[in-house]
UniProtKB/TrEMBL annotation:
Organism classification: Eukaryota, Metazoa, Chordata, Craniata, Vertebrata
Alphabetical list of Pfam families matching this protein: EGF_laminin (PF00053), EGF_LMN_ATRN (PF24973), Laminin_N (PF00055)
Protein name per UniProt: Laminin subunit beta 2
UniProt subcellular location: Secreted, Extracellular space, Extracellular matrix, Basement membrane
InterPro entries associated with the record: Laminin/Netrin_ECM, Laminin_IV_B, Laminin_N, LE_dom, LMN_ATRN_NET-like_EGF
Keyword Lipid metabolism: no
Span of domain Laminin EGF-like: 247-310, 311-373, 374-433, 434-485, 693-740
Keyword annotations: Basement membrane, Cell adhesion, Coiled coil, Disulfide bond, Extracellular matrix, Glycoprotein, Laminin EGF-like domain, Repeat, Secreted, Signal
Disulfide pairings: C276-C285, C341-C350, C404-C413, C457-C466, C469-C483, C693-C705, C695-C712, C714-C723
Record flagged with keyword Ribonucleoprotein: no
Ranges for domain Laminin N-terminal: 15-246
GO annotation terms (biological process): animal organ morphogenesis; axon guidance; basement membrane assembly; cell migration; substrate adhesion-dependent cell spreading; tissue development
């Protein structure tokens, strides 16, 4: 405010720590604040006489307040003009108990009083003061020419202490008859050794009202029996009243200004509003400024200004208050408590943040933005989004850390803890457990997706909870991949899918085992060249046979050849001599598929050989021995034709093991083990499962046959896959075999014939 100035260089009036405003006459400018209980002439002209001029015939006059001869109380105010003794205040004649009272607009220091009288000084008076604007009064000093007689019980001046109540006889004599003075000093010079800054003396100096009570007039020994009232010789008359003092500033100001509501200012007037220093404020610098309440307010003393100390509010409060209990508890170090902390701060020193705010460790504590909102996720946070207001590692506090639900974490409580998902406002614990199968989930990652709850499964595991193997896998376990491949046989099983628990594939008829690679008893797999037509079973055609073409022609599903006849030769072969032919029935094929036609032959006489698979002529040479084989184009079969890595691997194995080449040669060679396994799978595909052995009950030694090819174990002189025929030259197939002696291998002989074969 205008009454508070900063403390820089000490101004005049401030030395040694405390300040003193100049002393002046408190009456100046306050004539309207003076009042008296008696003034002459108020009710009409009133005769009075001047006792000091009794020898003068003009010693009596009239007092009349209605014209220029008035003698109101305002006349006692000191003037600097030379006619100062031409005006005065005068009471009614003969009235003894008269008061003069000064009402100040506030508290002031009162130091001394001087009254200059026009007539005799009072025979007795007393000076009173009030510190509560006239509600109560206390006597300052008694004055009397006979203290013991007029104020019995009051000790004579001086007292032993400055505050003692005494009676002073020095200023009450009848002489002089005019311009006599009554002087009073609050601090008697004889007591100056006392500490004038102690509370008792300071209180003694403070006044809001002063009252002079004239209680007895001096007379010249002619006091009438009826009293003095109206006696023109005896009255109180006062030239000047000086009440010296200064504004009350407790040592914290060296100047004062008009207070609100005070009388208009005039020259020499003592004002009552202090211009405070030392961070004090108030009309009398009686308290500390709003932000300077860290220590208790004290009046300044010589050498000790007792400057008010600033509260440590970090710039977040406009005021603070003093708490004595805190001050004492701190060892008289600090007692300030900040008021109404701003910028979302809280605490005694605004050093904390309000609930739902936290201290930003990167911001200066005095920054307007040092307290940031908690920013908690309402779905995962507790206590309405309350967070740690500051960091304290000893207490486990982290600034900004929200109070999370049981299964939630993160500074904002916006993430599910590992092993949980589905952050939700309605979930009392924030998130739900993942419920992942421990064997099927990847152990080193978050168990499940924190949003959907879908578990992170191992490579060959599926399902929301990782509890199922992928199609074509089985045996959920704790190993790194989770499940094992079904590895179902691509021919023996209907598909590559198997049971989840045991890995059992779904087998085609007459196949079993986990992979469907084992044959049921009494069943076999066909070889790749199982579809064969043997020449020995053909019908010979003579050169004159009209069925023999003279040129290549389209056939009707038969194998035809020019021949001269059949002769004994190698087993399963027939010699076709020059000019003769052979008619064979095409073997039955198990499945609609593209087949390669293979002719196995041997020539007795070298000649031109031309062979072509398809529906066209086969020029075989001179004296050929024939076997016709239908080889399936396996690359078109399921499990061998797709881009699946397994199919490519199987095709590669077929070629690398020479399985297809081995099936073409004459005579057929024994197959490698890999070829036998693949041939069995292909057979199951082509034939829809295992083939029945169907061994001849009499011609075979057993109902079991060879797993590959199905050859039954034949009795003596019996031949055929099922042991159902006698060897050439034998007869009578029965439980002991065939009778007779075999005539030798069939198809072995000589001849020089050219054969033309047409295959449809």
């Amino acid at each position: 405010s205008a009454q508070e100035v900063p403390d820089m260089m000490p101004p005049p009036g401030c030395s040694g720590g405390n300040c003193h405003p100049p002393t002046g006459n408190l009456v100046i400018g306050r004539g309207q604040s003076l009042r008296t209980s008696s003034t002459c002439g108020l009710h009409g002209p009133e005769l009075y006489c001047v006792v000091s001029k009794l020898q003068d015939s003009q010693n009596c006059c009239f007092c009349d307040s209605r014209d220029g001869k008035s003698h109101g109380i305002e006349n006692v105010v000191s003037r600097s003009d030379p006619d100062g003794r031409k005006t005065w205040w005068q009471a009614e004649s003969g009235v003894e108990n008269v008061t003069i009272q000064l009402d100040l607009e506030g508290a002031f220091y009162f130091t001394h009083l001087i009254m200059t009288f026009k007539t005799f000084r009072p025979a007795a008076l007393l000076l009173e003061r009030s510190v509560d604007h006239g509600h109560s009064w206390h006597v300052f000093r008694y004055f009397a020419h006979n203290c013991s007689g007029l104020f019995p019980g009051i000790p004579p001046a001086p007292g032993r202490r400055v505050s003692d109540l005494v009676c002073d006889q020095r200023y009450s004599d009848i002489e002089p008859a005019t311009e006599g003075e009554v002087i009073f000093q609050v601090l008697d010079p004889s007591f100056l050794a006392e500490n004038t800054n102690n509370a008792e003396i300071q209180e003694l100096l403070r006044v809001t009202n002063l009252r002079v009570n004239f209680s007895k007039l001096h007379t010249l020994g002619d006091r009438p029996l009826g009293g003095l009232r109206g006696h023109p010789f005896y009255y109180y008359a006062l030239y000047e009243l000086v009440i010296a003092g200064s504004c009350l500033c407790h040592g914290h100001a060296s100047e004062c200004r008009p207070a609100p509501g005070s009388p208009p200012s005039v020259e020499g007037m003592v004002h009552g509003h202090c211009v405070c220093r030392h961070h004090t404020t108030g009309t009398h610098c009686e308290r500390c400024q709003g932000l300077y309440q860290d220590h208790p307010w004290q009046a300044a003393e010589p050498g000790y200004p007792h400057t008010c100390q600033e509260c440590k509010c970090h710039g977040h409060a406009r005021s603070c208050h003093f708490d004595m209990a805190l001050y004492l508890a701190s060892g008289n170090v600090s007692g300030g408590v900040c008021d109404a902390c701003q910028h979302n701060t809280a605490g005694r020193h605004c050093e904390l943040c309000q609930p739902f705010f936290h201290r930003d460790p990167l911001e200066d504590p005095r920054s307007l933005h040092s307290c940031k909102p908690c920013d908690c996720n309402p779905m995962g946070a507790l206590e309405g989004g309350l967070c740690d207001a500051y960091t304290d590692t000893t207490r486990g506090l982290l600034s900004g850390q929200c109070r999370c639900k049981v299964h939630v974490w993160g500074q904002r409580c916006d993430s599910c803890r590992p092993g949980h998902y589905g952050l939700s406002l309605t979930q009392s614990e924030g998130c739900q457990p993942c419920r992942c199968n421990a064997r099927g989930r990847v152990p080193s990652t978050q168990a499940c997706d924190p949003s959907s709850g879908a578990c992170h499964c191992k490579r060959f595991v599926s399902g929301r909870d990782c509890s199922r193997c992928l199609p074509e896998f089985w045996g959920l376990s704790s190993d790194s991949l989770g499940c094992r491949p079904c590895d179902c046989d691509f021919g023996g099983a209907y598909s590559n899918r198997c049971s989840a628990g045991q890995g059992l594939c779904l087998c085609r008829p007459h196949l079993h085992g986990r992979h469907c690679q084992e044959l049921q008893s009494g069943y076999f797999c066909a070889t790749l060249d199982q579809a064969t037509a043997e020449a020995e079973h053909g019908r010979s055609l003579q050169p004159a046979d009209p069925q023999l073409p003279v040129s290549v022609q389209q056939g009707q599903g038969e194998i035809k050849a020019h021949t001269l006849g059949l002769r004994a030769g190698r087993a399963h072969f027939a010699r076709v001599v020059d000019g003769a032919g052979l008619s064979l029935l095409a073997p039955t094929v198990p499945r609609a598929l593209d087949y390669d036609i293979v002719l196995r032959y041997e020539t007795q006489v070298s000649g031109m050989v031309a062979s072509q698979v398809g529906g066209w002529c086969q020029v075989v040479g001179w004296g050929s021995f024939l076997t016709v084989v239908l080889l399936p184009r396996v690359g078109e079969l399921p499990g061998l034709r797709s881009v699946d890595p397994g199919a490519l691997r199987r095709l590669q194995e077929l070629h690398e093991a020479g399985c297809l080449e081995a099936a073409r040669v004459s005579p057929p060679q024994s197959m490698p083990e890999a070829c036998a396994r693949l041939a069995c799978s292909i057979s199951a595909l082509l034939h829809g499962g295992g083939l029945a052995c169907e061994c001849h009950l009499q011609g075979s030694l057993s109902t079991e046959c060879a797993p590959l090819g199905g050859q039954c174990p034949c009795r003596p002189n019996i031949t055929g896959r099922t042991c159902d025929r006698c060897l050439p030259g034998t007869f009578g197939l029965g439980p002991t075999g065939c009778h007779g002696e075999p005539s030798g291998p069939v198809g072995v002989g000589s001849g020089t014939s050219m054969s033309f074969l047409y295959v449809a």
